[in-house]
Amino acid sequence: MSEQGKGVLLFLAAWAVIPVMDACAKKLGQDGYPIIQIVWARFFFNAMIVLPILYLPMPQAFRRPSRWCA
Q1: 28 lies in which domain range?
Q2: pTM (two decimals)
Q3: What is the pLDDT of residue 70?
């Protein structure tokens, strides 16, 4: 698959996931869950999805630099 095709698929996947995530947050808010818990869960699970996507193509970007200052 071309890079443009991958970009299109990621774009469509994001636009499919975002409304579902918003609907789940609204439902949880109506059910009486604390807002801070809903916000924490949204960001936590979002990070669990996004970090592997970022890590797989470039794991060297997540390594600690050998020199902190130039």
Answers
A1: 3-62
A2: 0.60
A3: 61
Does the residue 43 lie in any domain? Answer: yes
Is residue 33 a part of any domain in this protein? Answer: yes
Read off the amino acid at residue 70. A
Cβ-count burial 1-26 (b if 16+ within 10 Å, e if not) = eeeeeeeeeeeeeeeeeeeeeeeebe
What is the H or E stretch that residue 12 is in?
Answer: helix 3-30
pLDDT digits (tens, 9 = 90+) for 10-53: 899 889 888 888 899 999 999 999 999 999 998 898 889 888 88
Q: How far apart are CA 20 and CA 29, in angstroms?
A: 14
Q: In the block, which residue shows the tokens 């990070």?
A: 47
